DNA sequence: CTCAATTATTGACTATTCGTCATTTAATGA
DNA sequence: TCATTAAATGACGAATAGTCAATAATTGAG
């Protein structure tokens, strides 16, 4: 006996089919190529039915972003709960971020879209709040690791510093790096054949700059990174075929 | 005696008027609010005439980005040519970036737009190359300062490191931070009342992590930053009323 | 100055899109 | 069986990008 009626199940299936199609279209031809008419046509439903699921195009896009963000939050939680030193847990967060990008190469494009085009205003409070919640939760998780490091004596912040500033440093570096990486194919021509590794080095050196011990010169965090990837997200990540 | 005929001048004026209007519209209501019809209406010209200047909407957007990028390149060159230590010149680059964002708050939104929506494909080779050129030049300038630092003995890169990796670190951090800052109004709610200052700290700590002397703990780079802002870009920046 | 040739401008037109809603179709259960 | 409720439809209105034949303005040779 199911908790959902056949109708409810059908509806949910259709919804995920819509999102799946939309994701493919977005990947294929960007925001402008994502057309409600085409979704309806490919679904073999009329447009009106699609609009019963999502009141507008923007809600679909934000839904896609939220699906991804939810997974990222899970991965960050997994990384944070790892039994290791604070900086190793931080490395695990890095592994989570890298794995997330591997699984959702579209996410940054979508996130940028949501931020830049006037998509935000057209979406429902509920979905907007969900998104902000996910982001805030991610920050809180990373902030928690920072505070643990302080508690453990591995990190001492200067007077005019807060954990939030450090988290913002990592966040902005990651966001920027992956935005550039996923939307630019000419990085080799500019002397950066392996931008992901460059990001990894820079993250470590930033934490070294904060004096978060053990410093990356004294410990092989790349090994930790690979280990976290394997143990925590190895083989198959949750919710992914 | 002008080198341009009256017609050419008129055309150029009209072109900059179009860009000006487009910029305002983009600021006002985003990519979707930027309408060729509305531009034509507000210019009091017909649509066809607008299309004689720009073959499509996307070219207008890329033009706007390029206008801004050109100015940033100028500012970076100015900063790099400053007579000071390598890390001070780096601080001047930071001042240039900050000043650039102050003058062009729209730039990051437009840049993200160009990257994420399918704008890139629709634009001319010429404009695309101009953009890539500007970006590459900016990187080269910053890379030049890094190399000067190495020559001066203020910086020693590890074996597996290159100047490009460092530049990428600064680039991604700046790009990410300003993208987030200019597209998010809820940073205070997340414990970041002054994100620009946070960025500044993080940049310095990253360079400290690289061991670029004098370290920020030994030298007041914020003073340098303010000084560069004043001396190099103070009062009125070039090409700005 | 005149007027044919060139150049610039126009806006009606096509095609495409989003989102709505009266109408039709299907499902339900008394 | 059939009245009532729910779901699905697609024609429609309103915007928009971009085109292009027709029109207006400019130019410069005679």
Automatic annotation (TrEMBL), chains A, B:
Pfam families (UniProt xref): TetR_N (PF00440)
Domain (HTH tetR-type): residue spans on this chain: 12-72
UniProt keywords, alphabetically: DNA-binding, Transcription, Transcription regulation
Record feature DNA-binding region, as residue ranges: 35-54
InterPro entries in alphabetical order: Homeodomain-like_sf, HTH-type_TetR-like_transc_reg, HTH_TetR
GO MF term (any one): DNA-binding transcription factor activity
PANTHER family reported in the protein's UniProt record: HTH-TYPE TRANSCRIPTIONAL REGULATOR BETI, HTH-TYPE TRANSCRIPTIONAL REGULATOR RUTR
Protein name in the entry: Fatty acid metabolism regulator protein
Species lineage: Bacteria, Pseudomonadati, Planctomycetota, Planctomycetia, Pirellulales
